[in-house]
Structure prediction request, 436 residues.
Amino acid sequence: MKFISTRNSGNIVSFEKAVLNCIPEDGGLYVPEDFEDKRRWILYTDENTTFSSIAGALTSAFLKDEFSPIICETMATKAFSFEPKFKKLGERFFSLELFNTPTGSHKDFGIFFLVNCLETILTLKNQTAVFLDATIGELGASLARAIRGKKRLKGVLLYPKGMVRGLSETDYVWNGGNILPIEVDGTEKDCHNIVRKIFSSKSLVEDFRLTVANTANIGRLIPQSFFYPFAFSRLKKQTSGDIFYALAPGNYSNLVAGLYSWKVYLPLSGFIIPVTDEIKLDFHGNCQIMDSIVSLTEREKVDPASPSNLERLEDIFRTDSLMLKNFVFPSDVSESSAVSACQELFSKYGVYADKNTSAAYAALREKKELIDEDEASVVLVMRDHPALSHDFIKHCLGESPDVPDFVSSAMKPVELGKKFVTSADEVVSLMKGLSV
Prediction:
């Protein structure tokens, strides 16, 4: 599989280049150039097929032109000592939990996969690389766990002051670890601005061999497409009708990954999401992407610090605008309807749902007629552990779930005892001390 930029179809690169030099110079995002049909393959999966097996098989199918099947399967299977949980909640209603991970966040799937791919590539090339990301906790905790013990990767993480979480003493580079945490005397926005400024310098990117662990990197997004065949392998014997996935769009990475799944191997009828600022309903009640009104040539470059995958979503539908109306079904969801949805999930199914999951369920309720029309089955995608949404659930239910140790550890505040920085120059100065 080759990859092209959303803003220049002539910019064709390998997977290796797409993950190492993750931001195209034209300011777009890398996307798959084409998709090989693997629908026959999915027929051989069932409820006994592990997530790591699915990941290994699909990685080999995607990257067979660059790496041997053994290397591909090793990259994938080593990444996943954990897997999603698929549950039946009611008649034709299921959940896919993505939070049974080292930190309780769905981000672990993408980050652990990306780290293992990069470590393998860098070992083959005898090179090193550095992640540079801004975070308020979840990404940093996940990256720290993923690169522990890796020889060729370091992570530079920028936090707003007082927001360092989920790290241990052994993670720090000054103690022999792989993480250089830096507190910025400012807000999350200030951290993002520093990352943008550093990435705007081609020489700095090349000198430090910088990449990102967020979904601007296609290597972070690709493994999210493995969620859906895993769910289908559990679902296919339980339904013969249409299949919809209800999810909160976030930065649209799971939605894009789900559509990639459909293109390659997955039978599905569509995605139900809450309306967002960028994805709305038109006058006819159909899905409309607001950014599409603005030409790609008139847009700012993709943000390496806080990316949106909306441009990747547009790319999928660019050749067939009618497809957008038939695969993405937005619903208006108010704050009160999200609260009501949280209460209903708990009272009917015993499910603690965070705000995002509650909003997805509220959107699903608005599409009841669509679901009932063909007796369709629905999978509710639950991204993060409900304990991470303690205040919202407490507000809705008057109680909240217990916080498991792995979530508590990932969110535990940390004091670095280091000087705060205020500029990109100070960050670069600290990065020069990295042994990469």
